[in-house]
Every structure is written in structure tokens, then in C-alpha cells.
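>> received
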Amino acid sequence: MYFSIISSIFKSRASLQLENIMLRKQIDILMRRQKRLLVLNRDRLFFVLLSKLLTGWKKAFLIFQPDTLIRWHKQGFKLFWRLKSKHKGGRNRINSELKALILRMAHENPLWGAPRIHGELLKLGFDISQATISSYMPKKECRPGQNWLTFLHNHLKETVSVDFFDVHTLTYSLLYVFVILSYDRRKIIHFNITKQPKDSWAAQQLIEAFAWKSPPRFLIRDRDSKFGQKFKARLRHLEIHDIQTAYRSPWQNGYVERVIGSIKRECLNHVIIMNETHLNNIMKSYIDYYHNSRTHLGLNKDSPIHRKVCPDEDGVIQSIPQVGGLHHRYERFSA
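>> returned
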């Protein structure tokens, strides 16, 4: 105690004033009527700045540990450089109109992800990355995804695949949809609906699909009993090479499995089918959207029927409902 009194005599007037200021500030904090010490950010900043001016600040810093002040200083340093480097470098932010359009597409098309919205924006003439779109899309609780392996990278223009899938109606009866998919541009070149999928009926679908066009060289199918001897005979008659997938290996027929999954996820899972006629109309509506409007990852964000890019003009972007409003197409229209 006596040593501190004697040493204070030889201190400069400025040091004594700074020490008194630090002590008074601590008393002010203690006088605040709180159960715990209430230390504000401005208090922390005050002590950090004052410690730079007062060399013996540790002796005057009484109600806190010296390590506490050092930690405050590090936090302030991080905050300073975060504010200083904010919005510096990186990609330019998109304008508010484009951001609103992304949110509008995500809201109107809850089944779409960033790749689908990116493909739609590319067709509208926007130069924007898919990653940027992902950052502005509203977060979903669950993002359903499907991964499957594919094969057959050669002979895409000469290959089709076929498969059946079933649909439940309002009266709990079953309808079976037969689909033929071309690998060239992912086109659904034929579909038909039946209540009794027999071997002879499946064989007749090949005639209806390729009656006015040259048949493909290869046809990929699973080992379903619906593809019986009559179906195989029809393939030989059309000189189509029959390729059967392995047992329980749907990934080997990945293209048509993916198309069937898209039909269900994007259309049939969201409607109640009344009867065969209703299902036929729904399928025609979706296939028209699938061919002319829907963008595909496998086609570099293009549609099976090539879709032109709208010129980058000051036109009003309007949405065109498709498939009963489940999906939309966006076009520019002059004001």
C-alpha cells in the first residue's frame, strides 16, 4: 500500500488522470443495478482504447481479469476487419428484380430446384450461375433427391427404352401406363394406357409407335412378364435388338425410370385421377410441357424440343401456367 502511494507521487499527471478515468468507469459499471455486471460493447471499446494509452492498466483494471480485456481486443479486431472487408470482391450482387423473379419462380413451382430455375432463367436471357440462384432460393425443410447410375453412353440416337408404371384412380382401381422414351433428346415418343397390360397389347404398342418412322436399333427393358413372347417376336420383326436389364437393377434402365419418376413427382402425385380418359388428358398436358418447356440437366438446360432464348430486352416477364398450374413457363412480352 505504501509502495503504491509513493509510486503515485512520481507518476505523471496524465497517467494519474487516465488511471482515475479507468477506475471511475469501473465504479460506474458496479453502480448499475443489475444482478450481474452489465458490460456494454461501448464499455469494452472504452477499456480497450484506454489500455493503449495507460501503460500500467493492469493494476487499475480491478473488476475484470486482464485476459478478459485481451479477449475483448481480439473480438474488436475481428469485428473491425469484418466490417472493413464487407462486400469487397467476389461476384456482384444481383438486382432486386431478378431476386424477386427467383423467389416468384420458387413460390409458383414448389417442385422446382435450383437447376430447373436456372434453366428457365437461361431461356429468358439472364447470365447468372446456378450457385447464385441456390443462395437466393428459400430454404426447404426437405429437399427430396434421387440418385441413380446410368450406363449406355454410346448409340443414344439409336436407342429407346420402355417400361410400365401403375396409377391409382379415385375408385382405387389400377391403370397401367406404357412409355417409350427416345434417348436422343429424351423425348417420350409414345405412351398408352390400359387396364389389362397383356403381352399382345404391349407388342401392339411397338407398331403404333414406329408405324410411320424408322424403328430404333436397340430397345432396353426390364424382365417384366408383360414383355412376353409376342413382344419379343415383334421386336425381331422390326429388327430391334432386345437388351434386358439384370434382375432388380432399375438403374440399368435409368433414363426411363427417371422420366417415370418425374411424371409422378411433378404431376400425378398432385392430382386425383378420375378415370382412363382423365389420366390420358393429364399425360398429354404434362408431355406437352415436358417436350416444349421443361429444361433438362442432360440437355444442358434445354428442352427436348429446342427452346429459343428470349432476347435481353426491356420486356415484361410473364408466367404461363402449364399442367393445370403445377408448372409455369416464363416469356418476355413487350410492354
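>> Confidence is low (pLDDT under 50) at residues 143-151.
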